[in-house]
Amino acid sequence: MDVLIHLFVGLHIIGIASLLGGFLTQMSAMGQGTARFNRAMLHGALTMLVTGVALVGLNQADDNTVNNIKIGVKLAILIVILGIVYVKRDEEKAEKGLFAAVGGLTVANIFIAVLWT
Ligand code: HEM
Predict the structure, then answer these.
(1) Is 53 in the pocket of ligand 1 (CB under 6 A)?
(2) Confidence of residue 1 (pLDDT cuts 50, 70, 90)
(3) Mean pLDDT along residues 12-33
(4) What spatial distance separates the first Cα and last Cα of the chain, rounded to whole Å?
(5) Distant-in-sequence, close-in-space partners of 83: CB < 8 Å, separation ≥ 6
């Protein structure tokens, strides 16, 4: 089971790479107001959701304690991210503030994951 949990943590991190990487590649465009929510961000956010839910299940099945409040906060933030990226996915240009908010929320979730013990 441990190997499976570590495998899913690895997939979870690939999801972060895609979501945050998609955002970072658009940062200079964001400065000019021409950034757009791209497929890497959408697929990264979906990967976070699927692997996150799987990690909760695998940890519970393995009798590891899962911090439900922390996971609930991360899930709530991710749902906001996913909602924005999904709804705006076909727009040529994203509003600067909204685009920055998605990057900020992603970074916030990373620090919630690693600092909330
Ligand atoms: C943008 C969204 C997210 C980010 C950036 C993120 C980030 C991370 C990171 C960096 C880790 C590894 C660090 C660690 O093990 O402490 C992790 C682990 C984990 N994540 Fe996420 N996560 C996100 C969304 C979610 C969601 C939506 C769920 C569940 C529905 C979830 C559930 C978990 C679980 C169960 C673990 C392993 C156990 C733990 O240490 O808390 N994550 N996440």
Answers:
(1) yes
(2) confident
(3) 97
(4) 22
(5) none
Beta carbon of 49 within 6 Å of any ligand 1 atom: yes
For residue 5, the tally of other CB atoms under 10 A from its CB is 16
pLDDT 10s digits, 52-94? 999 999 999 999 999 999 999 999 999 999 999 999 999 999 9
- For the beta carbon of residue 35, count every other beta carbon within 10 angstroms: 23
Nearest-CA residue for ligand 1 atom 20 is 52
User: Using alpha carbons only, how large is the chain's radius of gyration in Å?
Assistant: 15
Question: Quick check: CB of 112 below 6 Å from ligand 1?
Answer: no
Q: Which residue type, as a one-letter code, is found at position 71?
A: I
Distance 52 CA to ligand 1 centre (A): 6
Span 26-47, average pLDDT: 97
Task: Establish whether residue 76 lines the binding site of ligand 1, counting it when its CB lies within 6 angstroms of any ligand atom.
Answer: no
